[in-house]
Amino acid sequence: MDECKPLVDGKSVILGKNRVFQFDEVFDPAVEQSTLYSDFVAPLVESCFNGYNATVLAYGQTGSGKTYTMGSGNSVGRCKLKRLEPRFESAWLQCLKAAHETKT
Q1: How confident is the model at residue 72 (pLDDT cuts 50, 70, 90)?
Q2: Which helix (H) or strand (E) holds 14?
Q3: Angle between helices 84-103 and 42-49 (to 10 degrees)
Q4: 3-19 pLDDT per residue, tens
Q5: Residue in 46, 50, 52, 51 with CA at minimum distance from that of residue 88
């Protein structure tokens, strides 16, 4: 079995002999949704609004919480934790509203 070996910069891993994968951050399972959003997703909203493309990708083992974190899974009733997708939608709508108010 191949072993992952971290590179010196702490933002890359080598899998096997020569497959290098880079990443921005790895979060502890206990991190709050608000921290994840404010640190990494919120800046992308403004960038998108200014014409840049952005992608938020959740990658991990089956059952590790990707769908839950992104907020695109089915849920029963109202969820008390606001996940990433609804936070993004709210911020995007606020940007649109502010832009509209500036023009009028």
Answers
A1: low
A2: strand 12-15
A3: 40
A4: 667 666 778 888 777 88
A5: 46
